[in-house]
Amino acid sequence: MAWDDIRTSQAFPAIVGALAGAAIGVGMMFIANRLSQPKRSSPAAYDANGNPMNVVYLPTPNQFRILGFTVGDLLTLATVGVSLARQMQEIAKTQKLDQQARELQEQPQLLMPPPVPPPADPIAAAKKK
Question: pTM to 2 decimals?
């Protein structure tokens, strides 16, 4: 059976669907198998020969703290605070400009100059004499 015969067959969508379903099923079985296995802890480090070795975690150095925050934490908080304040000022400025633009659009007579009357017809004025 040639590929064109299969592709033009009325059963082609069913064949493709079955293959896709089988692939998804195999993938889900693989994921479920990996999730159901007991957790194995891997060593944190290996030496030059590939043997696992113990890792010693040192305590954090004593730093100057204010209310539990280090100097770096305070600088980060200050930077975030200044950035938020600037954003709030920009938002307020943008809203104020939008409000002013809306007020100007609601009053179109203030934007347009008064209409200028058409000039008097000089020919008609000459005939009156």
Answer: 0.38
